[in-house]
Write a structure and sequence with these properties.
The chain is of the alpha+beta class and 129 residues long. The chain has a domain of 90 residues: Winged helix-like DNA-binding domain superfamily/Winged helix DNA-binding domain (Arc Repressor Mutant, subunit A, Orthogonal Bundle), CATH 1.10.10.10. It has five helices and three strands, in the order H-H-E-H-E-E-H-H. A three-stranded antiparallel beta sheet has the order 1-3-2. Helix 1 packs antiparallel against helix 3. The protein is globular, with a radius of gyration of 15 Å. The two termini are 18 Å apart.
């Protein structure tokens, strides 16, 4: 398995960081990583398909928000908070203080915390990541 790209802290731009944090699913991932620490993808499904979750992790990783490491067959993800605090003092603390712990539904199609996907469908468990 090839190594994943992780930008050096001096390569992280505020614009790419803000872009990566501009999505409700990615904000929920960041909130959960901040609360729970390092987590495998499977514990952060957020009610979205595995391929979509992989895309969100790629955006967060390439923007420098998260660090992913391989352990066995899993990828463990952690928030690069200490590094980001050094580069952009107060940004992550300010962001984490205002993230809604129960985000609104995204376009009425995904309930991030409840795992409900699709309009008018019965509630179901989130997919495995």
């Amino acid at each position: 398995m090839r190594e994943l790209f992780h930008p050096k802290i001096e390569q992280i731009s505020l614009a790419s960081l803000l872009y990566a944090l501009g999505d409700p699913v990615r904000l929920e991932i960041v909130r959960r990583l901040a609360e729970q620490g390092e987590q495998p993808c499977s514990s952060l499904c957020c009610g979205v398909p595995k391929s979509t979750l992989s895309h969100h992790f790629k955006v967060l990783r390439e923007a420098g928000v998260v660090f992913s490491r391989k352990e066995g067959t899993q990828r463990l993800n952690s928030l690069r908070k200490a590094e980001l605090d050094g580069r952009f003092p107060g940004l992550m603390d300010g962001l984490l203080a205002v993230i809604d712990p129960a985000p609104p539904r995204i376009g009425a199609t995904i309930d991030l915390l409840g795992g409900q996907a699709g309009r008018g469908r019965e509630k179901r468990s989130p997919p495995h990541c």
